[in-house]
Specification:
The chain starts with 8 loop residues before the first strand and ends with a strand. A seven-stranded mixed β-sheet has the order 6-5-2-7-1-8-9, sandwiched between helices. The chain is about 15% helix and about 40% strand. The longest helix has 16 residues. A hairpin with a 5-residue loop joins strand 11 and strand 12. It has four domains: about 210 residues, von Willebrand factor, type A domain (Rossmann fold); about 80 residues, Immunoglobulin-like (Sandwich), CATH 2.60.40; about 70 residues, Carboxypeptidase-like, regulatory domain (Immunoglobulin-like, Sandwich), CATH 2.60.40; about 80 residues, Sandwich (Immunoglobulin-like), CATH 2.60.40. It is built from six helices and 30 strands. It is elongated and about 105 Å long. By secondary structure, it is of the alpha+beta class.
């Protein structure tokens, strides 16, 4: 058996899908912990006050005693490397020794089972993680796995790949890695698995175990401050999506609110993973990746200064307008006239879908201010043609004309709602086979008026 460098604990978390969760207190959810203990031959090696297997057994027993009175907690035990000696190598040597039971019952059973375990075999870490995922009866709880080991994978499998696969499936969350005396190249090797802690002695190891338990059992709160341009904490009523920073999977969807004291409401989040937040403003704002400290009240700030935009028109038609970032062809948002909408402060381009269309460049949105454009009331043009034919309606612009409505060759009458302005109809009958029979008629539309345009 290869002499393994010291590595004491890898902690994986298996979690239920938290997308759009309605659970307010993560710490009050039912949790399951599966301890996966390394009982390979290398655990007989000495570290600090004794053999690694004895130290791990003793410290784990202390931890289990502390978990007995925690409500909504179930605990199980899986062990590997203990059934068959090495050599020969047996990469299937992994077994669920204690199935999940309430912590008040299972803690003593696991402690007693640990006393009977003897370190003998090899180290099938990845396989034990895969089988450990199947030990959980369902994924409706916070399913947490703590893997205790002193070394690396020895069975030609890749724990990093296993970690990634199950994280992408939203079964395994970001793992914690706690090592003893690891060389730098080993630290880099375990970076792909998760967050690394270096335990240099037994006391530090015990402290780290307490930190891990804090992630599992302590309520962790978060306050998101949505700031204006002056860093005032006044923005609110914005939907925020919390994403797992590793998998990009949605974990929570909360609409920001203020409490009765004018402060952002307190939210409960699971501290096991790192997050980034998308604030669904127009346009959206994305935070940097951040950690939450378990058992603490965490505060995150995002700049989301907003102002309002409104296009007012007295019209029976509910026209829409397209909002784009300035000098950008991509549609940011489509809104209706007479409907106020908030946008981040800045400059935008707007296209109003009237006939003819209207374009507004460099529309300025200022903080806590409503920017309003009043559009004149349109009029009605009843265009009556002598027969079916070809042509179009044009907007007159000084000495130029612009086509705004092609004539439908199947119709002889066109009723159009037009903005006030000067227009021209150009038409040729379908039966007229020479260009000299083309006819044209100029007319003017006034605000709120109705006019008949008859082409003879």
């Amino acid at each position: 058996m290869t002499i393994k460098k010291a590595l004491l604990i890898i902690i994986f978390t298996f979690s239920s899908i938290l997308s759009f969760s309605n659970n307010n207190e993560v710490g009050n959810e039912r949790s399951r912990i599966l301890f996966i203990v390394d009982a390979s031959q290398s655990m007989l090696g000495r570290w600090q006050s004794g053999r690694k297997i004895d130290i791990a057994r003793n410290l784990l027993s202390v931890m289990l005693d502390s978990l007995k009175n925690i409500e909504n907690l179930e605990i199980g035990l899986r062990v590997y490397g203990h059934q068959k000696g090495y050599p020969p190598q047996d990469c299937d040597d992994s077994k669920l020794e204690v199935n999940f039971l309430p912590a008040s019952i299972s803690s003593d059973r696991i402690i007693n089972k640990l006393k009977m375990i003897r370190a003998r075999g090899t180290t099938p870490i990845a396989k034990s993680l895969e089988e450990g995922a199947l030990d959980f009866p369902d994924n409706k709880t916070r399913n947490i796995v703590i893997l205790i080991t002193d070394g690396k994978e020895e069975c030609n499998m890749n724990p990093c790949a296993v970690s990634e696969i199950y994280q992408r499936k939203d079964i395994i969350l970001k793992p914690f890695v706690i090592g003893i005396g690891l060389e730098k190249d080993w630290i880099n090797e375990f970076d792909c698995i998760g967050k690394f802690f270096d335990a240099t002695n037994e006391n530090e190891f015990s402290n780290i175990l307490n930190i891990v338990i804090s992630h599992i059992v302590d309520n962790t709160t978060l306050q998101v401050n949505l700031l204006d341009n002056d860093n005032n904490n006044i923005e609110t009523n914005i939907n925020m999506t919390f994403y797992d920073s590793y998998t990009d999977l949605q974990k929570y969807n909360y609409v920001h609110t203020m409490n009765q004291f004018g402060n952002p409401d307190t939210m409960y989040v699971d501290p096991i993973m790192d997050y980034y937040i998308v604030a669904h403003t127009m346009p959206k704002v994305i935070s940097n990746v951040f950690e939450v400290v378990p058992g603490k009240h965490n505060v995150i700030s995002l700049k989301t200064p907003q102002g309002e935009l409104e296009f007012k028109m007295n019209s029976k038609i509910d026209y829409q307008y397209i909002v784009r970032k300035q000098n950008n062809d991509s549609t940011l948002f489509v809104n209706n006239i007479n409907n106020v909408k908030k946008f981040l402060t800045g400059a935008y381009d707007v296209e109003l879908l009237t006939l003819p269309r209207m374009y507004f460049k460099d529309v300025k949105i200022e903080q806590n201010t409503k920017t309003t454009y009043t559009i004149p009331t349109p009029g009605i043009a009843n265009i009556i043609l002598p027969s079916k034919g070809y042509g179009g309606l044009y907007l007159k612009k000084a000495d130029k004309i612009e086509l705004i409505y092609p004539i439908d060759a199947k119709k002889t009458q066109h009723k159009l709602t037009l903005l006030p302005g000067d227009y021209k109809v150009i038409f040729r009958s379908k039966n007229a086979k020479q260009y000299i029979y083309t006819k044209q008629e100029d007319f003017k539309i006034k605000s709120g008026s109705s006019q008949i345009i008859k082409i003879n």
